[in-house]
Amino acid sequence: MQEYNFHDLIWTKNITRDDGNAWAYMEHEIGAVFELNFSSKMGASNARLAKKNDLILLVQSVRSPNSSKKPTYLTHIVAPINDELTFDDPPGSHAIKRLVTVVARNLRPLVKPESLDFKRPNRGKVCTIDLIIPFLRTGLVIDLSQKQRLLWELFTVKDLSVKEIISELDETLKDPNTQAEEGKELYWEGKHKYYERDRKLIEKKKKQAIQNGKLFCEVCNIDFEKKYGPIGEGFMECHHLYPIAKSGIRTNTLDDLALVCANCHRMLHKKTLDGQYLSIRELSDLLVQHVKKSSKLRISSH
After folding, report:
1. Which part of the chain has CATH 3.10.590.10?
2. Which of 21, 43, 194, 270 could cross-link with 165 by S-S, CB 3.0 to 4.6 Å?
3. Mind listing the pLDDT tens digit for each residue in 164-207?
4. In this protein, which residues make up the domain named HNH nuclease (predicted)?
5. Stretch among 61-70, 126-135, 165-174 having the lowest mean pLDDT
6. DSSP calls for the chain
């Protein structure tokens, strides 16, 4: 299993909303996917510095109520889900955007450690963590690795496993047929697809079906070997029966998977008009009803 660790925390970025009078991006929870804005003045090259799967520490200074002071807070650790940029049209001061997912975010914003000076990276640019340095008065000597660990461990609420589903998040977002919105729903859809691609479990499921003489789509009953010959042998996809958003992360068993063809698999991931996903039985019944209706129409037309 791939998991993030403190060595992945390479970058920091200062963020702001309403000139520090409001919190930025605090509506996004762990696992949420959102567009992170970058300064137009700093340019696209700066926005591209952090690569897919690098971690970025988001820092913001927010004015305290009834005070002119703006303490500095550490609010999120995020990861870009791809290396692509988008641009607002017409452009504004922060017209460059990248899709990121939240890896860590405490319930309450963290006030920066008193011993560390955040002034050097505090200009809206993407900067290396190395620019965060101890105040001279502290006499503190700390290397990059120690600094990464210190900042990383300040966040007690993390989802380290996001690293293994980054590609699924990106792919799900680019799929023209996906109906997952940005935010937490996209995260769960990415998790769902990741578990559907557990090769070892899929092979066990197929082997079990072959032994029982049942390697066919559980929705439409297509058997690829019968239809296409030897080239179709063993060809079938797996669908995870339990939406992870509802059932949570669980240890998968063969009974959690259904064998389906690509077309039916797409339909199982397509929402109905009332925003629900169909079960294997519901989609199969729908298909039977449609076939019967089509047959009646063909007969009546003759």
Report:
1. 6-163
2. 194
3. 777 776 766 665 454 444 445 555 555 556 555 667 778 888 89
4. 204-266
5. 165-174
6. -----GGGEEEEEE--BGGGTB-SSTT--TT-EEEEEE-TTTHHHHHTSSPTT-EEEEEEE-PPTTSS---EEEEEEEEESSS--EE-SS--TT-EEEEEEEEE--SSPEEPPTTEE-STT-SSSEEEGGG-EE-GGGT----HHHHHHHHHHH---B-GGGGGGHHHHHHHHH-TT--PPTTHHHHHHHHHHHHHT-HHHHHHHHHHHHHTT--S-TTT---HHHHHGGGGTT--EEEESS-HHHH-S----GGGEEEE-HHHHHHHTSB-TTS-BPPHHHHHHHHHHHHHHHHHHHHHH-
Question: How would residue 214 be classed by pLDDT, with cut points 50, 70 and 90?
Answer: confident
The yes or no reply on domain 6-163 and CATH 3.40.1160.10 is no
